[in-house]
Specification:
There is one protein chain. This protein has helices at residues 2-13, 17-51, 72-83, 106-112, 155-158, 175-181, 184-187, 198-209, 226-232, 267-280, 294-301, 306-318, 331-335, 347-351, 371-377, 386-397, 404-415, 418-422, 424-437; strands at residues 60-66, 88-94, 118-120, 138-141, 163-166, 190-194, 218-220, 248-253, 284-288, 322-324, 339-342, 358-360, 381-382. 37% of the residues are buried. The strands form two sheets. A seven-stranded parallel beta sheet has the order 3-2-1-4-5-6-7. The chain starts with a helix and ends with a helix. 44% of the residues lie in helices and 13% in strands. Helix 1 (2-13) runs antiparallel to helix 2 (17-51), helix 3 crosses helix 9 (226-232) and helix 3 (72-83) packs across helix 19 (424-437). It is an alpha/beta fold and 439 residues long.
C-alpha cells in the first residue's frame, strides 16, 4: 500500500508527460493487484463466516450502526418491522456525526428519543463499546466510509464475526456516485448489498464476479425502503413549513461543493438572488435546505467567511417568507411543498415520488447516468441561470406544468404502486430471516 501511495504522490507532482504516463500505468497496475488481494482476502473471511456461525443466539441479533440523524429515515421502516417481530433482538449503536465531523452525542440524543434500543458507542472511560461482545449476527452500516470509523468498527474487523448488510444512504443517479458509495475498501466486506435500483444490483454482481469469494456475497434488489417511509409520511405535518402562510412553497436544495466532478453547487451563486426574489414574491414561501456539509465546507475552503454565513442566516430569518431547514426528517416536508429547485442531489429522486415538478440547476452527463435514472431526469425543467429558475417558477405557479403527465407516468413505471412500495421493508426483513435460517 505504501508503494501505491508513493506512486500517487509522484503522479500528481511530476510535469514530464512521458514519466507521468508511465507512472500512471504502473500505479494503476499495482492498485489493481492490491485491490484484487484485499478483495480475495475479504472473500476468505466471508467464506469462513458463511460456514461457521460465530454466535448461538436465540434470536436474530441485528446492530444498526448510525452516524447521522438524517440516515435514520433510510432504515426506520426496516427497524419498525423487526422491532415488532419476536424473532429479532436489536441494538442501534450511535456514533459521532460523519457529516459535521463532531465527536458528540447528537446522533445518540436524537435516537434515544425515538427508541430505547439506542446505545452510545463510547463508554465513560472513552473506550468504544465492543460490538463483538454484543454478539450480532448482522450489522447494518448507515455509511460506507471506513475512514470515519475507529478500527474496531471498520468493515474488515466486523466482517470477521458478523454478516455486513448495506442499504445505500442515497438513491445513486450516476456511475461515479455509485462507485463512491460502493468503494472497494468497504464493499469487499459486505455480505448483502440491498440495492436501490435493479440496475445497481446487476452491476454490483458483475463487479463482485471479478474476485474470489463472489458466491459468498449477495447483491439483491427488493426495493428502496426510504420510499416506504416517504409514503407513510404523506399527510403528516411538517415542522419545517410552520413559518409558511402561502400555498405556493418552493424548496431549494443546493449541493455542498462546487466541484463539478461530483455534482457542483450553485449555493454561492444563487443564495443572494433567492433572497432578492423572495422580496419580490410575497405569494411564494421559500424553504432553503442546504446539504448538511454545505456551511462547514464553504467555511473550511474559505469560500465563505463566518461573518458572511452569519449575515446570510440572519437575512433568511428576518424575512417572513424564507426559512433555513435544519430538521433531520424531511419526509413530510417534501409532500407539503409545491416545487423543488435543486443541484445534483439524491433527494431529487426521493422527491420525484411526490409527482411534483423539479427544476434542475445542472447539466447532466447522460453517458454517466444509471439506466433507471435517465427517464426520471427527462421529466425535469432545466435551469442554466437564475433567470431560468424564476421563469419556471412563475409558469408552475400559474398552473403551466407541461411535464406533469410524463412525470406521473414515469414515476408509476419506475416506483410502482403505493401498496407495493409499503411492502419493501417486510421483503428485506424476510430476506434476512431466510438467510439466517439457511446459515
Amino acid at each position: 500500500m505504501m508503494v501505491i501511495e508513493e506512486l500517487r504522490r509522484f503522479y500528481h507532482h511530476n510535469n514530464n508527460v512521458a514519466i507521468v504516463k508511465t507512472g500512471y500505468y504502473v500505479y494503476k497496475f499495482l492498485e489493481r493487484i492490491y485491490n484484487t488481494y484485499t478483495y480475495h482476502k475479504a472473500g476468505i473471511r466471508l467464506n469462513k463466516l458463511s460456514r461457521n456461525k460465530i454466535f448461538s443466539n436465540k434470536k436474530i441479533h441485528i446492530i444498526f450502526l448510525m452516524q447521522e440523524e438524517s440516515a435514520w429515515l433510510k432504515l426506520k421502516d426496516i427497524y419498525d418491522v423487526m422491532h415488532e417481530d419476536e424473532r429479532f433482538e436489536i441494538n442501534i449503536v450511535c456514533m459521532s456525526n460523519c457529516a459535521t465531523f463532531e465527536d458528540d452525542k447528537a446522533v445518540y440524543d436524537y435516537m434515544k428519543n425515538i427508541t430505547s434500543d439506542a446505545v452510545y458507542y463510547k463508554k465513560n472511560d472513552g473506550s468504544y463499546v465492543d460490538l463483538k461482545k454484543l454478539k450480532p449476527d448482522y450489522v447494518f452500516y448507515s455509511a460506507p466510509y471506513n475512514g470515519y470509523f475507529p478500527k474496531e468498527y471498520r468493515s474488515d474487523t466486523v466482517s470477521q464475526y458478523a454478516k455486513i448488510c448495506f442499504i445505500p444512504y442515497a438513491l445513486s443517479a450516476n456511475h461515479v456516485e455509485d462507485n463512491i458509495v460502493l468503494n472497494m475498501d468497504f464493499s469487499k466486506d459486505v455480505y448483502c448489498y440491498y440495492a436501490e435500483w435493479e440496475t445497481a444490483a446487476k452491476e454490483n454482481e458483475i463487479r463482485m464476479a471479478k474476485y474470489l469469494g463472489s458466491k459468498y456475497r449477495r447483491s439483491v434488489f427488493l426495493g428502496y425502503p426510504v420510499l416506504s417511509s416517504l409514503i407513510r409520511s404523506k399527510g403528516k405535518k411538517s415542522k419545517s413549513w410552520m413559518f409558511s402562510k402561502n400555498k405556493f412553497r418552493v424548496m431549494w436544495t443546493p449541493r455542498w461543493t462546487t466541484d463539478i466532478k461530483i455534482g457542483g453547487s450553485h449555493f454561492l451563486d444563487y443564495k443572494d438572488s433567492f433572497l432578492k426574489y423572495a422580496d419580490q414574491k410575497d405569494k411564494f414561501d421559500f424553504l432553503f435546505r442546504p446539504h448538511p456539509m454545505t456551511f462547514s465546507h464553504f467555511l473550511g475552503t474559505g469560500q465563505m467567511s463566518q461573518e458572511e454565513l452569519d449575515k446570510y442566516i440572519k437575512d433568511c430569518a428576518v424575512r417572513d417568507n424564507t426559512h433555513i431547514d435544519t430538521e433531520n426528517d424531511y419526509s413530510a416536508t417534501i409532500w407539503q411543498s409545491s416545487v423543488l429547485v435543486s443541484d445534483y442531489s439524491s433527494l431529487i429522486l426521493e422527491y420525484f415520488l411526490t409527482g411534483k415538478p423539479i427544476i434542475y440547476c445542472q447539466h447532466i452527463n447522460r453517458d454517466d447516468m444509471l439506466d433507471d435514472v435517465l427517464e426520471i431526469y427527462d421529466t425535469f425543467y432545466y435551469a442554466y441561470d437564475f433567470h431560468d429558475i424564476k421563469r419556471h417558477l412563475q409558469l408552475i405557479y400559474e398552473g403551466d406544468d407541461p411535464m406533469r403527465k410524463k412525470r406521473i407516468a414515469v414515476r408509476n413505471k419506475i416506483f410502482g404502486n403505493e401498496k407495493d412500495i409499503l411492502k419493501i421493508p417486510e421483503r428485506i426483513v424476510e430476506d434476512i430471516v431466510n438467510d439466517y435460517n439457511n446459515w
